[in-house]
Each structure stands twice: as C-alpha cells, then as structure tokens.
C-alpha cells in the first residue's frame, strides 16, 4: 500500500509550518486593528529598551539654569530638577525597567511552568508538597514582603531586581499551569501519547506546552506588567536605592522633590513615566487579547 | 494473548483530612482475549467498562489481580519494563475531538511515535514519512490531503480514523475501542466499525470493544466473547451470539430489552425485562449486586453474591442464582 | 537674660494651624511625653522648657525666657541661678514650683542631656541642683570638665509637673544620682539604675496632658493634633490663638501643598524646589522669614581610599566643583553656597574668624588650577579622562541616603560637573539614613555627604570634622586618636597635619574648644579653619538657612529680628513667639 | 454542617502552620536587617546640638531594651509571645505594644478598603453583566478594554492622577489623613462628614483599581453562564426576564464571591501605595514607616498581621463557598 | 390555553446563521405538519438542523441565527414567527413545552427543583402555586419518581434519567399541549432511555398532546413516533408514517441510514456504511439536492435543481430519482 506517492506535506515540514504559523498570527492581528496597535506599542518599548539609550550620551546633558521646566518644543515633557530632558530620561530609563521585567518574566514563566508541569504531571505526593509550598507562597503578600526585603537586600542591578521579583512571582503561574496540566492530562491525546510509549519529554514539550502556550504567554505578559509595576512602585516609595533615570525614581522625585503635585512645571516630569506605564499597560492588554487566537490553530485560521 | 485475573479497582474520591469516599469500580474481573480475537464489554453507564479498558491498555493501575500479556505477568514488573508490553495494546478513545492534540498537525501526530520506532530500529526519516502515509491509507484516508491538516479541519469520522492510524503506528497487537463510535455521525459509524473489523481480519489485530450497544458489539466481534458488566462485576460471559439469543442473567435481559425496536422492520421481544427502578438508591454491597433491581429476585439473592460460573443447561457463564432464558430481543419481521 | 513681653493686647482667639516639620507621622496612640520620640508634646506649645536657647553666632548660652523668667550665670560658668515666672501655673491650675523644675532635671538625667548626664566625665555636666526657694533654683557645674555651654544645657530642659510625674522617679533618686557621680562598681550600678529609669520615663503616659505652656493637648488623631489654650498659662492674656491644630505629614510634598494652599499659619523650614517656593511665596499672606541655622553640608572623603588620601586630589576637586551651581540645583532657598571650606557656617565664621577668613583659599572654580593639582597628585589625563596614578580608571563614587533629595540633587549635579571635566562619577544611594551612617562609618564609601559646623558652641562646630568620625574621641576631656579605619575613623586624616608650615593636632585643638572661653576659642578656631581649608578633609558645599514660613492672613506680628529668629533646634519657634505674646490675631 | 466543620478544621490546621512559617520567616529576615537605628538617632541628637556623650546616653536609654540573648532564645521568646498575641513592643514608639499600634492602624485600613472594594464590586459586577450581554457590540468592547486597562494600571498611577486632579489642580478633596481634628470624635455630623470627605479619594482609588478586575471577572463569568444550557432552558420555559436575569446573576456571581473574600484579605496589605499617597494612616503606611524607622518589632508584626488576614480571608472564602454553593455543601466537588 | 392537542403547520421555514462566510441556512424551506395528537419524530445527523427547527417552533432561534422566511402556525397561537415580547414568552411554557437537548444541564444548579417550579409558576401568573406543586408531584409520581423528594433536590442530586424526567415535568406542568423534545435520551444509558421513551409515550397518550421528538437515533423514533421525518443538510428529505418509512424507505438517504444500523439478529454483513460524510453549514450545496454527493442514484439534474417534494398519500419524499422511478412505473 505503501509506495504511494510520498505525500506533499512531508517535505514541507517545519519550515512551511512555521510560515503558516506566522501567516496565522498575521491574520489574527489583522482581525482587530487594536491588536496591531498593541504590538506596535510593545515593539516600540522593546526597541526603546534595547536601542533607546544608544541615542543619548551616557551622561544626559543637564542645565542648572533650566531645572524643572514645563513642556516645551525643546523638551516635550519638560526637564527634571537637574535640567535634563524628561523624555530622554524616560527613554534611557526604559532599559532598566524592561530588562528587569524581562528577567522577572523569564524566571516567573520558566520556574512557574516547570513547577506547575512537574506538579501536575507527577501528581501524588510531589504534587501535594509543591502545591502546599505554592499556596504558602501565594499567601504571603508580595508587596509587604518586598518592602521588608528591600531593607535586607540591595537590588543593585536590574537583573537582581528581576531575579527577586521573579522569585516572588512564580506562584500564580505554577498554579495555573498545574491546573492546565491536570486538565490536559485527562485529554485523550496525552493519554494516547503515554500509551504509545512517547517519552515524558516529548509529552511535555510537544504535547502539553504548545497547548498551554497561550496561558504561558499570557502569564508572561502579565508577569512583565506586574514586574514593571512592582519595581516602579518600590522605587516610587523610595525604599530602593536611587537610579537617576529610573521611572519609579522619576515618579518619586517628581512628587517628593520637584513638587509635581504643587506646580504645573513639574507635571511633565510626573506624567512622562506615568504615560509610559499606561502605554505599556495598554499595549500588553491589547496583545493579551490576541493571545488565545494566536496559539489556537483553529481561531488562527478562521 | 492477553488475560486478566481478578482485576479489582477502587477509586478513592478525594475528600480531605478526615477521610474519603470509596468507589468500587471493578470487583475481580477475569478476561481473556486471544491474539487476533475479539471481546466486547457491555454494560450500563458507570459500570466500569472504561476503567477496565484503561487498565488493559496500561493507562490505569489496579488494586488487585493481574494482567498477563503474552504470558508475562505485569504486576512484578517495574513501570519502565511494563511499558513495552502495554504498548502492544492501544486505546481508541470515545471522543476523537480530545484524542488528537489540536495544536499539532496530523503529520506531527503520527510522526512522533514513528520517530520513536525509527530510533529504536535505526530506520531513516524517509521511512517515517512513508509509514505515516501508509497507516493513513490503511484507515482509508488520503495521506496527501490529510497529513498537513490540523484536527479541527477534519470531520469526526476522519478524526477517529486518524486516531486509529496513530494506534497502528506502533504495530499493536490489540486495540481497545472504548465507545469508539458513539460520538460519530450515525451514517459514518458503520464505516469505523467496518474498519476495525477489517483491521482485525487483515492485520490480525485483536479488538476489545467497549460499548453499551450490543448490536455494534456483534458487528465487530461476532465470533468473540461478550462480557456483560454490572457495577464492576462480570455477570454474564459467553459467545456474542449465544448471549444475544439466549441471555440468562436478568441484567443482560434488561439491557437487551431496552434496545429500541425498529417498528416497521421488527417485532418486539415477547418477555421484555424491565428492571425495578432504583438505580441510584439502595446500591447495597451485599449479595447479588443486581438484586435490588431484579424483578426475579429470589431466596438468597441478597445474602451471598453469586459468582460467575457455568450451570447445567446454560452454555455461557453467568452470575445468577436463578438463570432462565427469556425471549427479550426484537426479531426482524422478515423472520416471522 | 530677658523678660516676658507683656505689652501686647490680649487673645483674640482663632485657630492657629501649624506643623512640626521635624516629626512626620503624628501618632495618635503616643503619650503627651516630651521624651517619647513620637510623643504628642509640642515644644513651645504644650511643652515648656526652662528657657528657649538661641543659636547665637558665638554665645551658646543666650536664650529667651521660658518657665524661668530670668537667670544669672556665674562669670566662670560654674553655676546658674534660675528665677521662675512668678505666676507660672500648670494647666490644671497648680503653680509651677522649683520642685517641679528639680524633678524635671531629675528626669532629664535619666534620659541624658548636655547638662544632666550621668556619663562619667561628660563635659559641662551639672554637679548639684539646689532649690533656693519655691521660685529659685541654683545649678552648679562640675568643674572637673567644664563646658562653656553649661548654662545652655541647663536652660534647654523640658519642665514637667511633679504631681503627675513623681511616680516615675523613686524616692531615693537624688541619692542614687549622687552615687552615680562617684567611681567604682557602686557608681556603675547606680548609673545603670538611672539609665534603666529612662525606659520608664520614655514610656510614661500621663493620664492627661498637664502643660505649663500656652496650650494643652486636647486630642490627636492619625491626621492631626488639636491643642487648646491653657487658661492658666502665665502669659495667657497675650496668647492669641484659642486653638492650635498640628497637621501631620509624611513627605515634604504635603507641606508644600499646605503652604501653597495657605493652610499653615506658621511652619519651620522645609526644602523646596524653586518653582514650589515661588508658588508658596505667591500664596495670599505668605511670607518667608530668613533665619540662621548653624549647619553646613560637605562632601567628605574617605582617605583610606585612593586617590582621596592625596590632598592635591581633594584640592583639585574643590577647584572643580562649582558650589554656586550645586546649591542652586540642590537647595536654592535653604542654603547659601559656602564661601569656602572652613568647617564653620559662614555667618558664624564672620564672627569667629573675621581676620582669617579673607586669607583662606576660596577655591573658586578654576579648571586650570584643578588640573595642576591633579597633576601634582600624579593623576594623568588620557583621552580626556583622568586616570589614577597607577593608570587605573578613576571614578568618583558618591553616596547618599535615598530619602535625602537635596543631597541627591547635589550629587547628581556634581557628577555631571565632574564628567564634564573628564572625571568619571556616579551617585550611589543607600536605602535609608541609618544604613547610610552605618556603612559610612564602616568605611564602605569613598565619598559621602556629611553635616558639620553644628554651632553655636565652638566644640560642636569642629567635632564633626575633627571628632570621632576622624579618629579623635573625647573621653572625659581626654583626647585619644584611633588610626584610620578603626573605631569609627572613616575620614582618616593623619593625627598631625601641617598648616602654614606648622604641625598641629586638630583633634586636640578641637578638644580644647570644649572648655575654652570665647576669647580662648577664637585663635583655635582660626587655626582649625585654616587646617580645614588647606587639608580639605571635606569640601564645604553650602551652609543651611533656617527659613520660616508664616502667613499673615489670620495672624500677624511675626518677628523679623534676627536674634529672635535664631531659636535652637527642636523648638517650634512659633510656639515661643506665641507664648511671648508677639503673635496677634488679625482683626 | 459536618462538611463545613471538617473543612474548617483542615483550614485552621493549615492556617496555623502557615502563620508559624511566616512568623519564622519574618523573624529571621527582620533580624538580619542592616542599619543601626541607634547611630541614626545619635546623629540626629548631635545635629540638634546635644553633646556627644549626652547623645550617646540618650540613645542608650531609647534603645537600651533591645533584645539580647542568643538568636535561638530571641526566636523562642518571639514565638512564645505570638501564642499570647504578644507581638512585642514597638521600637519607634517606646512603651506601645505592637498589637496596639497595629489595631489602631488596621482601623483606618479596614474601613476604606471595605467600602472601596464593595463599591467596586457592585459597580463592576453590574457593568460586567452589561459587558457580557453587549459583548459583540462597541459598548461591550469599550467596557472590556476599559476594564482591562483599569485592571492593568497600577494603583499608584491611579492614586497619583487622582491627587493631581482633585487635590492639586482642582483642590476640592483632601488628601491628608483620615479626618479633620476640629470635629469632636463621635457620632456627629461634622465628624462623620469629615471622615467621609477624607475617605473619598482613597476609596475611589480602591474602587477604580479594583473595578476593572470585577468587570472582567464578571463578564467572563456571565459569558460562561449564558452559554449554560439552563439559561436557554429557562427562557424556553417562558420564565420572566427578571427571573432569568436572577438565574444568570446568581450563578455568575458565585465564583466572584470567593475572589471578593480573597481580595479583601489581600487589600489589607496591598494598600501601601494608596495609603502612602493619600497619607492615610493604615497598615500599609505603618509598614512603610516601620521600615523607615527600622522598627523591627512593628515591621514583623505588621507583616504577620497582613499575612494572617489573607489566611483568614482564604478560610472565609472557602467556607462561604461551602455555604452558598449547594454542590460543595453536599460534598461534591464543584470545580 | 388550548385544552386540546394543537396542530402545527410549518410552512417554508428557513433559518439562517450568520457566519464569517455570510448568512448560511441551517434549515431551508421546510414544510411540515404536526397533526393534533400525534407524535412526530425527526431524525437527522449532527448538524442537519434538527435543533434549529425545534427552536423555531418557539421562535427561539438564538443569535447569530434568525428565521429568515416561512411561518409556524400553531393552533390557538397563530404564527409564532410573528410573536414577540411578552406574548412570545407566555406562549413558551404555557402552550409549548420544550424538553431540552441536554436536559442534564437544563436546571439551575443553585436552586432546588421546587423553587424553579415556583419561578415558572410566577412567570406565568399562576395564582394557585400549591396546585402547581401538587400537579408537579403528580406528574413526577406518574413518571415513577418521589415527587416531594425531587422537588426538594438540587440538580446535582439527581441522576441523568431523573433530570430528564424533571425536564419533561417542567414542560408539561403548565398544561402545554404541544411538546418538543430535543434529543430526550442522548447521553442516557440504554435502560434509562427505554424508560424515558416509555414515559413519553404514556404521557403523550394520557394528556392528549401533540409531540415532536427530535433525535439522531432512528431506534428512538421507531419506538415512539407515529410519523417520522428525515432531515439532511437542513432539508426534509422524507416523511411519512413511521412503520411505512422504516419498512420501505424511499429516499436513498433514509435507505442508507437504515442499512447502516447494525442489527441484533440476522446477517451482520447486510449492514453497510454510507459513503462520504454529512455536510456542514458551509459545505452543504447551495443549490440542487443536498444529498447528491453521497447518493448512489445521483443524476445530472440533482446538481442543479432542488428536488420537489412529492406527496404520495401520507408519505412525502424529495428526490429526483424517486420521482423519476415513480413516473417510470
Ligand atoms: N478517576 C476516577 N476517580 C474516581 N472515580 C472514578 C474515576 N474514574 C471512574 N470512576 C468511577 O468508577 C466507576 C466506573 O467508571 P467507568 O468510567 O469505568 O464507567 P463506564 O462503564 O465506562 O461508564 P460510561 O458508560 O459512562 O463510560 C464510575 O462509578 C465512576 O464514577
Ligand atoms: N450559533 C450558531 N452559529 C453558527 N452556526 C450554527 C449555530 N448553531 C447551529 N449552527 C449550525 O447550524 C446547523 C444546524 O445546527 P443544529 O444545532 O440545528 O443541528 P442539529 O441537527 O441539532 O445537530 P446536533 O445533532 O449536533 O444537535 C449546523 O451546521 C450548525 O453548525
Ligand atoms: Mg466509559
Ligand atoms: Mg441538536
């Protein structure tokens, strides 16, 4: 029966599939213009984080004669109390924020996913123990813990910052992934794969993970926002060491030093990082909206 | 040859610290399926058919008893060593929608187990592609159009065929078909059944057919054995046609009586048996499990549980103190 | 000495709204106890002191009358005799007597204060407290280690009602105190016991506020505290407000908000950026009264770190940093750029060392001079960047605690100035002040900011520069020096430094100031100022200005007299002005 | 009833263990906090003109009672105290037991959190239903997107914006504490009015920041329920719209109640930003203060209290569910 | 309220669903008459439009679907397609009882059956609620259940068969005389199914109803229905008295369907699968015979012309081949 034509899709294998995937993503994105907008925003932030600082000198030019100026043509968001351009600060500051957010997201997702997968897949005693730990972790309130931790550790670099936030943030993902794993486990196809003798690695990486991709991706984006908020918030509260162009520090200085609440001169200094956060939120919200469709081949193609 | 002796399974329904509920799903089931042969399990919803099927396919553990595959008992083996044996037994799920990974194309679905085989036997990638096309052709699908599809792009019948094709990739000795057609369009069901029958005949794959529809059991495994299961216990066991024609256990009789009569074509059986209603209540654990619902219950039925055995004048094994033939099934008008 | 101003017309009533800028976070559960760090006791309002000491430029013993109407200081500072206000009364109507004051002094001993300390050998400690008559007390100084500011220490003591607080001190307290002044194990034990009493004092919660001040605490909630006029106050007739409301705050921005909204009738100084300052000044009735604050901030070096051990490097930096610019960015209203590094606030310097001041190097910004100094120090300039003598990169790493925004601004500005001059620089913050201090004194930082020139007493002025932080400790009048990096010596100046060709020991000189009279002090001050100027253990950046915000919409009569404005730290000046009858309700 | 008691027993046991663990963690973290509060206090006194020796003595008085003894000793003392609800004595407020400080602060947290959460819950749930019903329309889209946005915006951003608008640009609302002192505390119009006026901004911030979550949760819950057969069945039986609506609402709101209880617990600790920005003297602000004051005892106590409130909220949520969902009540798993 | 079994005349009924490919008909040009007092069964495979048709009887097609043409005349109600608002709501339940496809989930999980019954009574302005409860208990008792206990139970406390009976009770308790049962036994096991079918038959007779039973299982229709209609791709391809249709099916689809059922007795090999597969909304031919792709009697005309519905006494068939044969014979 066999030497029938070697069917066409076998040659197409991964390359075409990948192409089809991206075509599908394109279709999903096109369906709602808002999603495109979201992607553009996120791409913009990513670009800003990677290349933004390159457009500016390491030490931003300051001007002691023009400190805390209101927005003008020269300085779209005005200047800070050192007379530096606020927009430039936001842009150069994005790297810290986004880098640590990326680290957080990575840790959250990798740690949370592996733990959730392991727990849901192994079940039994391991599951019980891990989930108790996760429960406990989830019970401990993050922000207060961070406040207390901030007195013990110095979050010197964005990587360290991201690390700590990541280690505090995996609980939710682990929970969600475990729940997903448990429910997928009951699906026929996982059982079939086990029956066929496929390796656990195959089952996890090829069968489970792709099905959970939207959840994971969504959680990753949520982790990114969460991390941005948490760290900016901590800097804002002033419990973390100061970094001159950090968004949170800008907020802190705008409020507690430049008097943004009192004079409109400093309003730009306050609003610029706020707007950056809002915009990032918006971008992420819009993209999360498309996540399910991107990873679901059915929704992708319709 | 696959045999099981005294398979017992009790589910512990998760409670909390202070205890849990026990659900006895199987109570010492014996079975035997010859190479290339067939067997059918029938019974009401919740009687334990699926559980038994999953145990046979190695997807579920059991509390007592043992399964022997080609003479090798499974219990003493470690999980890792059992696996190659159980791989010879492949399960066809009831629901072809969930049995295929929606994120993987049919090619990917078939390729994974084939790649495993290829790796073990040192075959080339070309062989994988060839074999993928081959198994699809075996189940009557056109590889050219199907391979690159995602499951959602196929109809229910095609999906079920893909599921069967996937099972065939590992050259199984037995297929466990759990209600394999109940979610498929009526007009297509017979196609799948025919395919299974065909595979049995051509490839010598034995088929274990799990269903609540006796007629389909007859279609696939007319020459095999029928196991009637009630609340985890086999209450009647024998050749399919014998049991259909001459059921002796009141539960089997109720099941057969319940089959709708095609009024234009058939005449109803003369002595239909309707069980006394009280399925949910009074699930007493003592005596005959069916006693509470049995219209013919007699002395002793509620005291000691009847075990599967052969009695005089009854060709098939049964677990009833008062076995009696009754004409319950509808007969075609043409025969009358 | 002075007397109560009785000329003004009476009360007038009204609500006086103010804020204690030194104490964020009013705590509703804290007692009206002046020693409790969160206590709801507002100095000048419901908390009275013997007198209100001033930050005179040179004389630490000047004060405005408080519960003491007048006092006499022995010419050799060996004693002070207090005359209480003749009709001073507690808010519950009982008279304030010399016994009350004596008990207050006893309580002060348990807490430790400048004049009432049980630490053996403490300078300027009192030896004896004698009640002469119900209105008169005499307090003598232990002349073993006298201090010219003994009287200040006595005057600056809170008075508490004996009939409320007496249970806090045991009956044999004065005997114990006497024992504590001795030597040996017995004395040690007595001192322990007195210190232990301190705990009791600290946590003592009077059932209700009994005040000898113009006001008495009515109630506190987490947002505000309300005080009402003390009808029994000796000068009640001239106390204008009927009620005083203390607002709470958690951050400066809130005070700015109050001020721009014209909510506050008076407030101590709070740093504010220029724009905010302008808004505040623009508020109706708003006025800023400039006062004197004997504090300066400096950029301090850790000389165990290279290249700061080299005086040329420090001088080079002094020539580079434009202090005017730094001050303009960091503290435009609250500070004036230091004219040069002297270790003394410039106003006080003019009084203390008028002849020496012009001779000191002003370190005017001068790149050429700076570069010459760096070259002298062996530094090299490569690709426009200054390298250390050993060829390694040089980065000026400045530290500050995170909450100190004016310091941070200053450091940011300095950083940018240095970078422009080819010196790499960075600003590193520490989460908070306690940690900053701990790490600073552990020698973890290269460069940090440091407060100094804490007048008016000459010893206090210089001990910030040539005291413990620089290795010299003063134990019972004996000066000892620990080497750099040990015993809290993080500045690391050598024990002897050369000034105008002569070797001096600045620590010892500073120690001498502790007992020197004004005339004796002057030449020493000149010597030390010159030493600081030439050796530059720190670079003095700006001298603080103690501005007071007042509002003329509801009350008038704010003093503008510089002398009156120089009230000591920790006192709510407006409370003193009110009790003296200066402040009037606007009709 | 049996089930409820059983569940409660399990929860309490687990909650107790949790508290012990958290207490241990906080004890050790807090014991490792660097920074010497004595040094800072000393500096302050010296800056204020006190002689160094005297300042040293004053500091000793203030911090003289700092815990001494081995770490293990301190730990057992701490845990022993816990069993009697004794959280030690505040360092920055000498003489005041931590528990007193906490209860005082908790008072100011609980009220606005409660009001804000309930308010947002009501509004969010109603609009969530609307968003679900109109989910294909523009309005539904707008509600959902605005919900996501508000849900996504950090609390402090909202709070800052509100302060800028209502306390700075158009100064119509106070942002400085919980009440005006001039009013006699008690049940009188002035005092209560002042309380309310001061609570407006914090409450609105809570409400706004929580609202998005409710809208989204309610929307998805309603969409799920709308897809349930029994709703169509009820319509096909000719049930009144109001009754059908009640069916939808009650079934959809059920899972939200759990979240509600949980979020109340979480909010107790999560109020840090709002309290800081509005100077509302609740637990969050106190936590920040205690961190800044290096008041170990207070910090540990606050942290513990916040965690405990979450644990309690968890238990309450679960029991609540047990009571209102007949499926759980009868022992079946409702998942 | 009609106290007698009403007749129903469905005329030219077309229902379309809005999809990404535009509005597509799920039910097209259906003419069907339910004689008063009869049980009519409709069989068809998944997606053939059975539920859509059933919902149309109550004018309850859910968005994105809508009735685009045709009428449903019910005695005593008029054209249901024209009803709206309160009128329509009152007709549902009181005139037409509907037993839901997945009756397992047709009850509010949070309320007891009794409370839902009272809600139903209030919705229809029943004044004598006690009477309603009595009636319900009677009905349940009639179906072999302990009425009081069932009314006191929540959905999850009832088994599938019990829920289905509760569904039937709720459809009948307001004294509706037209009852639509959509897949009343799907997902029930054999014995329960037989039981429910028996109840349907008995209740139908006792209360004098007009009943429409919808199923994909010919066996079910064969058990209960007087008349049988076969649907395929949204069209009615054949109808007639059950015994006649089963005994001598005319339409090739009906024939194929019957042949595809494995039987308990007789030669197994007679059973044969239908080739091809049922169409979906998108793949169903827009013109011509909907069944032609799978038809063994396919002719050229089938591709372009809709077969006309030919009535022959009580039997109706829509097939070119059949009419040709008839003409020939
Ligand atoms: N994982 C499980 N946990 C607890 N109980 C289970 C589990 N799986 C099955 N059961 C119980 O075991 C019994 C047998 O279930 P099983 O699924 O084998 O029945 P079945 O005969 O296949 O029924 P159906 O015809 O409905 O598929 C049932 O009572 C079921 O509730
Ligand atoms: N909401 C909907 N949107 C789009 N198409 C729909 C919708 N509901 C039903 N359809 C389509 O209408 C056709 C008829 O559906 P209907 O539910 O009436 O079929 P059915 O015969 O009842 O099938 P089943 O046996 O699966 O219940 C199907 O092709 C289905 O895909
Ligand atoms: Mg099953
Ligand atoms: Mg249907």
UniProtKB/TrEMBL annotation, chain A:
| Membrane topology, from the record | Multi-pass membrane protein
Q: State whether keyword Transport applies.
A: yes
Q: Which CDD domains match?
A: TM_PBP2
TM annotation in the entry: 36-56, 96-118, 138-153, 159-177, 215-240, 266-288
PROSITE patterns given in the database record: ABC_TM1
Q: Where in the cell is it found?
A: Cell membrane
Of which family is this protein a member?
Answer: Belongs to the binding-protein-dependent transport system permease family.
Q: What is the protein's given name? A: ABC transporter permease
Automatic annotation (TrEMBL), chain B:
* Origin: domain of life: Bacteria
InterPro entries listed in its UniProt record? AAA+_ATPase, ABC_transp_ATP-bind, ABC_transporter-like_ATP-bd, ABC_transporter-like_CS, Oligopep_ABC_C
Q: Name one GO molecular function term.
A: ATP binding
Q: Which NCBIfam families does the record cross-reference, listed alphabetically? A: oligo_HPY
Q: Which PROSITE patterns match?
A: ABC_TRANSPORTER_1, ABC_TRANSPORTER_2
- The identity of this protein, by name, is ABC transporter ATP-binding protein
- Provide this UniProt record's keywords sorted from A to Z: ATP-binding, Nucleotide-binding, Transport
Family matches, as SMART domains: AAA (SM00382)
Q: Which residues form the ABC transporter domain?
A: 2-256
Give the family per the record.
Belongs to the ABC transporter superfamily.
Keyword Ribonucleoprotein annotated: no
Kindly indicate whether the keyword Nucleotide-binding belongs to this entry.
Answer: yes
Q: Which organism is it from?
A: Nonomuraea guangzhouensis
From TrEMBL, chain D:
Q: Enumerate the UniProt keywords alphabetically.
A: Membrane, Transmembrane, Transmembrane helix, Transport
Q: Which residues form the ABC transmembrane type-1 domain?
A: 106-317
Q: Which superkingdom is the protein from?
A: Bacteria
The topology of this chain with respect to the membrane is: Multi-pass membrane protein
Q: Which InterPro entries match?
A: MetI-like (IPR000515)
**Which Pfam families does the UniProt record give?**
BPD_transp_1
Transmembrane region(s): 12-30, 110-133, 153-173, 253-274, 296-321
Keyword Ligase assigned to the entry: answer is no
Main location as per UniProt: membrane
Where is it located? Cell membrane; Membrane
- The residue stretches assigned to a coiled coil in this entry are none
Q: What is stated as this protein's family in its record? A: Belongs to the binding-protein-dependent transport system permease family.
User: What is the official name of this protein in its record?
Assistant: ABC transporter permease
Which organism is this entry from? Nonomuraea guangzhouensis
UniProtKB/TrEMBL annotation, chain E:
Q: Does the keyword Magnesium apply?
A: no
Output the Pfam families linked to this UniProt entry: ABC_tran, oligo_HPY
Q: What is the superkingdom listed in this entry's lineage? A: Bacteria
Xref: SMART domains: AAA
Keywords for this entry? ATP-binding, Cell membrane, Membrane, Nucleotide-binding, Transport
Q: Where is the ABC transporter domain?
A: 8-258
Membrane topology label: Peripheral membrane protein
Q: Name the major location.
A: membrane
Subcellular localization: Cell membrane
Entry GO MF terms: ATP binding
The protein's matches in PANTHER family, at most eight in alphabetical order, are given as: DIPEPTIDE TRANSPORT ATP-BINDING PROTEIN DPPD, OLIGOPEPTIDE TRANSPORT ATP-BINDING PROTEIN APPD
**Similarity comment text for this entry:** Belongs to the ABC transporter superfamily.
The name under which this protein is listed is ABC transporter ATP-binding protein
